[in-house]
TrEMBL record:
Name of the protein in question: 3-deoxy-D-manno-octulosonic acid transferase
Source superkingdom: Bacteria
Active site residues of this protein: 67 (proton acceptor)
Pathway annotation from the record: Bacterial outer membrane biogenesis; LPS core biosynthesis
GO process annotations (BP): lipid A biosynthetic process; lipopolysaccharide core region biosynthetic process
Length: 441
């Protein structure tokens, strides 16, 4: 039954290859990296595989930017415990691949993860022949796991999470999901709830090791620069961190909300007055392809914008500072007195709040944090975050928090304590991977 299900799935993914090529071409118009090395998506590689060496070839898959940042924390510990290892790093998105380039050392390789057809995954495995595969967080691909199993390559799921919605979906597709989860060698879950859901699908849960993202250590230089620029602002700075599509419009609407009873011209003047006099707004969109779109949205609302990419000696005077850069959340978190958490004000599950809290920046979350349920719960319990029902309530909560300097300072201290209290997952996960590599097959 499992073999038949896999064949049916492989046929469906094979039929999707033509639409996938078309989608990549469309994405490449705004993000050129999607148009590079497209053959790798289908298991064809120009570059040779890393040469055999004294140490193991560890394949690490981090689909996008968030997973790549978590993978960087794990990789640091893996290199300490396996100093002769070579890395094969794979991704699915352009932001992930761009960030992953900084993790490479001589002898490593970086490629796109192949599309999950039987042929592409078999070519990938036979070309690289890794000693172990480490999938980050949620990336379960049935054909890929089956191809590894056929070649005797152990595959593990690290920093594993599975929310209730995804669990329900996997149960509906149990004929496909259960064999894939069961074929993993080990799974290390973020929380006990994740472990229970994964075990329900047949995954070999080997432990609950916590969330790798707690091991983040904010870049000291970015923090110092951020604090200096915050001081120069001359007023409280409120960060909208990793906003997703639609949330910027919700924020702008919330600024106008109190003026709905007056005319359009007066409301337009009011939004400018609110933006200029109360706080310095710092807006950081989650996806780089939206930077220009968000900048125009802000201008259309009658507000001036100063973009990070154009700063010379520091932020320029403007109604809104726009963080249009990657890999600088430590800078932005250190500039801010409070942060509204992107992805949580639209039903998108929320973005990672841990890195912001680790900068000592109190977090205000919307109602949607199902992607980080446990981290959100822990932050609330620690007093490092608060939850609000919608964007207008979030904007109001941010105003009140930054106006009360004593309360803001206490919450900032709780953020640092919260971040420090849950570290250690990276070391424990790397140790478990090293032990599995050294165990007899």
């Amino acid at each position: 039954m499992a073999a038949l299900a896999l064949k049916l799935y492989s046929l469906l993914t094979w039929l999707a290859m033509a639409p996938l090529r078309a989608r990549l071409r469309r994405r490449a118009r705004s993000e050129p990296l999607y148009g590079e090395r497209v053959g790798e998506r289908f298991g064809h590689y120009d570059a040779p595989a890393p040469q055999p060496g004294a140490g193991p070839l560890v394949w690490l898959h981090a689909v996008s930017l968030g997973e790549t940042r978590a993978a960087a924390l794990l990789l640091r510990e893996l290199r300490a415990q396996l100093p002769t290892m070579r890395l094969l790093l794979t991704h699915g998105t352009a932001t992930g691949r761009a960030a992953g380039q900084a993790l490479l050392q001589p002898g490593d390789a970086q490629v796109w993860l192949p599309w999950d057809t039987r042929g592409a995954t078999r070519r990938f495995v036979q070309h690289f022949r890794p000693d172990i595969g480490v999938l980050m967080e949620t990336e379960i691909w049935p054909s890929l796991i089956a191809a590894c199993r056929a070649q005797g390559i152990p595959v593990v799921l690290a920093n594993a999470r599975l929310n209730e919605k995804s669990h329900a979906g996997a149960r509906r597709l149990a004929w496909l999901a259960r064999p894939a989860y069961a074929a993993l060698r080990a799974v290390w879950a973020q929380t006990q709830q994740d472990a229970q859901r994964l075990a329900d699908l047949g995954a070999p849960v080997a432990g609950v090791l916590g969330n790798l993202k707690f091991d983040v250590v904010p870049d000291a230089a970015q923090q110092a620069q951020g604090r200096a620029w915050r001081h120069q602002a001359g007023r409280p700075v409120v960060l909208l961190a990793s906003t997703r599509e639609g949330e910027e419009a919700l924020w702008l609407a919330s600024l106008k909300q109190k003026m709905l009873s007056v005319g359009v011209d007066k409301a337009h003047a009011a939004i400018q007055n609110i933006a200029k006099n109360e706080v310095q707004w710092l807006l950081v969109p989650r996806h780089p392809q939206r930077f220009d779109e968000v900048a125009q949205l802000i201008r259309d609302a009658g507000l001036s914008v100063s973009r990070r990419s154009q700063w010379q000696g520091g932020p320029e005077a403007a109604d809104v500072w726009l963080g249009d850069s990657l890999g600088e959340m430590a800078l932005y978190g250190s500039m801010a007195h409070a942060a509204l958490l992107g992805g949580s004000f639209a039903p998108l599950g929320g973005q990672n709040l841990i890195e912001i809290a680790a900068c000592g920046c109190p977090v205000i979350m919307g109602p949607h944090t199902f992607n980080f349920t446990e981290a959100a719960r822990l932050a609330l319990a620690a007093g490092a975050a608060q939850r609000v029902p919608d964007m207008p309530a979030g904007v109001q909560a941010a105003r009140e928090l930054v106006a009360d300097t004593g309360r803001q300072a206490r919450q900032a201290e709780r953020c640092l304590e919260f971040a420090a209290a849950h570290r250690g997952a990276a070391h424990a996960t790397a140790q478990a991977i090293a032990q599995l590599l050294h165990a007899p097959r």
